Every structure is written in structure tokens, then in C-alpha cells.
User: Fold this.
Amino acid sequence: MARMATTRRVVISTAAAWLFGFLIFFPILWMVLASFKTELEAFAIPPSFLFFHWTTENYATVQERSDYFHHAMNSIIIAGGSTLIALLIAIPAAWSMAFSPTRRTKDILLWMLSTKMMPPVGVLVPIYLIYKSFGLLDSRIGLVFILCLGNLPIVIWMLFTYFKEIPRDILEAARMDGATVGRELVYVLTPMAIPGLASTLLLNLILAWNEAFWTLNLSTSNAAPLTTFIASYSSPEGLFWAKLSAASTLAIAPILVLGWFSQKQLVRGLTFGAVK
Amino acid sequence: MKHVLGAVCGASVLLAVPAMAETILTIATVNNGDMIRMQGLTGEFTKKNPDITVKWVTLEENVLRQRVTTDIATKGGQFDVLTIGTYEVPIWAKKGWLVPLANLGADYDVADLLPKIKDAVSADGKLYAAPFYGESSMVMYRTDLFEKAGLKMPEKPTWDFVVDAARKLTDKSAGTYGICLRGKAGWGENMAFLSAMANSFGARWFDEKWEPQFNTPEWKATLTTYVNLMKEAGPPGASSNGFNENLALFNAGKCAMWIDATVAASFVTNPKDSKVADKVGFALAPNTGLGKNANWLWAWNLAIPAGSKKTEAAEKFIAWATSKDYIKLVAAKEGWANVPPGTRTSLYQNDEYLKVAPFAKLTLASIDAADPNKPTVKPVPYVGVQYAAIPEFQGIGTQVGQQFSAALAGSMTVDAALTAAQSATEREMKRAGYIK
Assistant:
């Protein structure tokens, strides 16, 4: 009887999880489906779900009109560069705040978070003027810099929380076993911090990949990433949903594939070691 | 750690340095069919001008507006040619943000530009932008449904006729609606249509002393007619419909009438995109007998920002893209039906164009019927038919548009929407110093 109740609960919770997952995934699925429709079908009311005239015409048009690889390469450099630099700055910062906190640590953390509370458009003109003066407009380094700065508070906060959860007792145990500071860092702390580092890296990469405000406003053509590639397919006069969907599918494909492949490692990392 | 940091920074700098070249023109534009065609034909321009390379930046209309405004206001110099609307041209020209186009070449034939369009892109007698394509608005209607209902569309319909016909042609059970009109909030969306409609009802945005006029009976008549008409004969969810949504509805055969941009005529008569391509008729935008039709005037234009350092090459490009030869080039490559309309008189005298564009005469008549300098029945202090060419209009227009969209959605009464529009406009105009 108890087993039946448990089985029923498992079935219900599994079904609920699948339903919830499907709801979350539905907009992406709809976008992918729309990318294979004609413009008229993409706009049709009532919409057709699977039974429509499938076409790859939109992908051909997007490929013909835009240099996808140029934009994708810019996205990889900008998202990758800003993530790596943010991590390099954030790791020592979070480490010191987690393991050697001072009276001001909490204030510093809050101050850093407060920079995320202002809407970016509020500083658009000053940043634009600074970038103009330094010749950073439409440059990848300029975008790497601004995205790195924008995401730094989140990265530091995430890493701080992960590091904070590492029990000091483990470090002390390692020291009692005669581990030097170097060995303690490499063999004890790093394995325990890897899950946190990996998820922070992936989240930051996704945030930087999808960032649209600064990338649209500070780039024109040379440094334009995939966000500008998507924006170029919206039209005030003319049907564009199918082509826009094709462009969006192409734009999210790399990050989706990356997420898919790193999923196993991430989950494994998150449940690995002494900290859960 | 030091090495890693150095390597990462070094790699970023190396990868981030943009390539340099001789004369690279960066052109900002919107994703409209005619602009995409122009991008496709850029090779023809660079063939004639091998020292010039063209780079396109295509953006969504509102993003483009924000992007180029930031760049031009800060003299960022990121763009050499801008695609801007007739709303921006007089405002930006006045601020000294645009370079006057004085060297378009001897064979450019400025006199051939349609006078109303030329006026809209000129300030103090100087041309500050060259029109790439122009449009007005008109009625597009289903000839088969009109015939079936025993109705005949006059060439110059009145609002009474349109309202009556829309009611008769509505068959909600069959999914056919008498009329499709813009409802989505925005100064360039529902307010473009409603401002033009208000002009035909004798209303105006401001009186001669810049006092907002939403408390007048003319505006009440406009909004009441619009809301009642859409409730009785409009499609469901009309308050979120803009140009594209209505285009999709009309092309799918759901609308008996649609009043919108003349440029839509080529979309609704294209059998590839439209189910009703061979059943569409055209008429002038409706009136109430006061001497003004409910049609607007708009053009997408090419202009040079004051921050550009390549004005000579930029002007060469503009002269090429807005010339009579460019129209011939498009006709030769893509057919006469695809040439950019609404800018040159000679196009409307071309038999080959008139043969493939059944909407050409109506487009020209609609453009001629709109006068940005005298847009309303009563006098106004502003220029612009469906907008007032002042910098504050974008914000005010969108705020008012939201109230009117709410009235259409039924979440607000017509009176409440007009009162809210009046007080919002008064507040903004006081803040901007137009009124005390």
C-alpha cells in the first residue's frame, strides 16, 4: 500500500516536472518551429503546430543576407573574454572576502550589488562619450570591458556564496595532515570549488552571450555580436517572424549546445565533494 | 596567475582591434523590403566607386532611432549615412545634426522629387535628406466581399460610408471582420493612424498657442467613432495590432477593409504572400467633408550625420541610392513592381510601372492629399501630418497612444482616455516650456 502511494507520488511529480519543463521550453520550441514556416504561416491565426509546409527557405535567406560567422565569432570572443576576465578578478576578491572577512566585507558586497540596481540606459551617454574618447566604440575590447564590469558583481556574489560554504574544518584537517598552502589550494580547495566555478562560468557566459543593451548600443559592424544579428531581422513594415525565428535559432544554437554538453559535468560537479 | 592574466588580456586586445581600410561607409538602416533590396544592389555602387566599401548596420526601427540619436547627439561618428524618417529630418536639421545635401550631382534632378515629400525633408530651403521611399495611407478593400454585399467603394469614401460598410461586411462566425485598424500603442503605431483620422474630423494636436486639444468635441468624435467601429467590426485583440499584424490578417482574408500605409499595397497584391492578392481594391483614406482626408505622409530618407568624416563618399552613395537610375536598376534586376515608391514624379509617368502597380495612382493621389505644412482643418503651429515635428512628440505621442489603446481594449472609457491624454500632454508641454 505504502509502495503504491510512493509510486503514485513519483508518477505525479515526474509528470509535473515534465509539464513544467515543457512549459519553460515551449517558447524555444515555438521559435524553432516558426523558423521552418513561411512568413504567412508564422503569422497565421489560429497557428498551426506541426502540420504546415516545412521550409528551410528562411535559413537560406538569413545565410545569404548576413555574415553569421562574423557575428558568432564576435559573440564567442566578447562573451568568453568578459567571462574569463571577470573570473580572474572575482576569484581572488571572493576568496579573500570568504576566508578573511573584515568589518566592511558585507558593505562592500552590498555596494557592488548596488551597481546592478541602476538601469544601464542611465549611464549610456557618459559611457558612450568615454568610449568615443578612447576609441572603444565598435570594438571587441570595449564590449569585453563593459560586459565584464556589468557581470562582475554577480560573479563575485556567486563565488563568495560558494566559497563561504566550504567548511574551514576541512582546510584545518588538511593542514594537520601537513599540507602546505599550495597543496591545500590545489588538492583541497580547488576540487571543492570547481562546481561553483563551473556554474558561475556558465551562467556568466550565458548572461554575456545574451546581453543586448550594451552590445546593440556600442557596436555597429566590426564588433557586432549575435544580438545585433537578431535585431536586424525585425521589420516595421513587412512580415518577419519566420526569418527572425531562423536568425534567433542560429544565434542561440551555440550556447544551447554548450549547455547541453556541460549539463552532465555541471550536475556531477554540483554534487561532488564534501559540499553539496 | 600573472601569465594567465597577461595572456587573456593580450589575446582580447589582439582580437579586439578592428581592421582599418580606406573609405568605409557605415550605413544604418531598417529591415524593410526596399532597404534590403538596396543592400543587395550595393555591389553596383561599389563597382562604380571602387575606392568605397559599404558596411550595413540593420536594426529594428526603435533600436535604430535610439542608437543613431545617441551617436548623433554625442557626435560619435559611428555612422556615415542614416536612414531616418520625415519626423526626425526637420528637428535634427534645426539642431545642426545633419549635413545639407548640396552636391548630389548635376543629373540628380531634384525637381523630379514629389513636392510634398521634398518639403518634408527640407528646412530653410535646403535639402537635409534624400527620400528613399515615400508613403501615405489609403483604404485597401476586398472587391469580392464588397460585390457580394452589394456595396460599391467610392473613390473618396466618407467615414459614414466606411463605418456602415464595415458593419455590413462583418461576419464574426466566418472569421471575417469589416475593418482592421492599428491599435497597438505607440506614436508611430496607433497614433499615426489616429492623428491622421483626427485631422479628417477637424481635430488637431495643439492650437496656435501650443495648448493640447484633446478636450475638444472633434477629438471625442474621432475616438468614439474609432472605438465603436472597432468594437462592432474589428478583429479580436485589436489593441495589440500594428502594421504587421493587420497585414497578416488582411493577407489571410480576415479583413474586408484595412486603412494603412500605401506601401502595403505591394504586399497585399503579391500572390506569394497574400491569399487575396487578386481581390484587392484601393481608395483614398476617408473624410468627413471638412477638406482633409485621414491619410498621413511619411518617407524613409537617407541623411548624413554632422559627425561623419566621409561626407563626400556618403553623398555619392545617397545620390546613387535615391536617383532615377537606381529605380531603373531595381526595375531591371527585380521588376517594376519592386521599385521604391513615392519619391519621384517620373515614376508615376512611367507606363511600365503603372502597368504592374494598380495602386500607383492612388498612392500618388494620397501623397498629394497630405500636406505636412497645413495638416489640419484649423491652423496649427507644428509641421507634420500624423505627428508634430517637435522633439517631445515621441514621448507624448506614445503616452497618448497608451490611453487610446486602453480605450480600445475596453479597460478605460473614451472620456477617461481623452482626459488622461489631455493632462499628460499638458504636463509635458508645460515641462518643455511651450505653455505656462
Q: What stands out?
A: Confidence is low (pLDDT under 50) at residues 11-21 of chain B.
